[in-house]
Every structure is written in structure tokens, then in C-alpha cells.
């Protein structure tokens, strides 16, 4: 390959085209990404970090208070999986649920369909729903405590 053909391949026009392609191929960070802390219930203080590592982000427990540990939830559990954006305010995902006995032994672990709703940029509510889209269970409130790393 000659010097002339190398210069042609890295021309300003080619650099500009590459930059434009790169800019449009990068995913915009979603406001769901970051660290969320559970508020006002028995598992208050649990922290979940959401990262967009693939098409459907997951939320990993990064801090579990004693009450959550007694409920079977520990650091590195995938608490929320396959998070899917429905619109600017609403998301669907699978929420990790566990059933434990009085001694803390886990008897059942499953993922349940759930919905997440943004009340504002730093507060979300979460609740399970049935296949018929009826709400079930207790509503959880989570506050954003950190942006995506």
C-alpha cells in the first residue's frame, strides 16, 4: 500500500463520516440508569443499580439492609431484569420475589411481572401486575441516589 492510498483512506471526509456513524450508533443513556434506594417500607435502604449492558437493562442489588437479608435478598442478586421502556414515564420488567420461613430459609424464588412509573426524575414507584394488567401487591417507592457510573 502506498502513502497516497493511506492518506486517501483517512481523509477529513472519512473522519467526519465515521464520527457521524459513531454518534448515531451509540445508545442514549436512559434516565432509568443509576442507583435507586428503596424508601418507606420494611426493606428501606436497599439499593439497586441499573445499567444498560444489553437491549434490556438489569438492576443488581448493591446494598441490602438486614431486613432485606432476612427476606432472602443479598448483594449481587438481580432484583429487576429485562427492563423494557413503554414510554417516557412507564417501564415493564421482571421483579425478583422470594418466600422465606421464620428461620430465613428461602423456599421459593421467582420473577414476577411488574411495572415502574416515574413520578419525577428522581422518584419511581413499582408494583406487580397480573397478565390482565391489573395491579397487585404493595406499591414500592424508590429514590435515585446516584447517576449512572
Would you kindly provide a written description of the structure presented here, covering whatever features stand out?
By secondary structure, the protein is of the alpha+beta class. It has a single domain (34-146), classed as Lipocalin (Beta Barrel). It has three helices and eight strands; from the N terminus they run H-H-E-E-E-H-E-E-E-E-E. The protein has an eight-stranded antiparallel β-barrel with strand order 1-2-3-4-5-6-7-8. A hairpin with a 4-residue loop joins strand 4 (78-85) and strand 5 (90-100). The chain is globular. The model is unreliable at 21-27 (pLDDT under 50).
Summarize, please:
The chain is 17% helix and 47% strand. The chain is α+β, with helices and mostly antiparallel strands.
Number of helical runs?
3
User: Overall mean pLDDT score?
Assistant: 82
CATH architecture: Beta Barrel
Sheet having the most strands: 8 strands, antiparallel, barrel
Low-confidence stretches: 21-27
What integer value in Å does the Rg equal?
Answer: 21 Å
DSSP strand tally? 8
Kindly report the CATH topology.
Lipocalin
| β-sheet strand percentage | over 45%
Give the fraction of residues assigned to helices: 10-25%
Structure class? alpha+beta
Label the overall shape: globular
First-last Cα distance: 43 Å
Which series of helices and strands comes N to C?
Answer: HHEEEHEEEEE
CATH class: Mainly Beta
Strand order of the largest sheet: 1-2-3-4-5-6-7-8
Count of domains: 1
Amino acid at each position: 500500500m502506498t502513502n497516497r492510498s493511506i492518506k486517501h483512506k483517512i481523509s477529513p471526509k472519512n473522519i467526519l463520516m465515521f464520527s457521524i456513524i459513531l454518534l448515531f450508533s451509540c445508545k442514549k443513556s436512559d434516565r432509568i440508569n443509576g442507583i435507586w434506594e428503596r424508601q418507606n417500607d420494611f426493606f428501606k435502604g436497599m439499593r439497586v443499580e441499573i445499567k444498560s449492558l444489553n437491549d434490556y437493562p438489569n438492576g443488581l442489588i448493591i446494598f441490602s439492609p438486614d431486613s432485606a437479608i432476612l427476606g432472602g435478598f443479598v448483594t449481587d442478586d438481580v432484583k429487576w431484569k429485562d427492563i423494557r421502556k413503554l414510554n417516557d414515564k412507564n417501564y415493564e420488567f421482571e421483579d425478583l420475589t422470594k418466600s422465606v420461613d421464620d428461620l430465613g430459609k428461602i423456599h421459593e424464588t421467582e420473577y414476577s411481572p411488574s411495572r415502574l412509573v416515574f413520578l419525577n426524575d428522581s422518584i419511581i414507584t413499582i408494583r406487580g401486575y397480573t397478565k390482565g394488567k391489573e395491579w397487585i401487591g404493595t406499591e414500592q417507592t424508590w429514590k435515585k441516589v446516584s447517576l449512572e457510573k
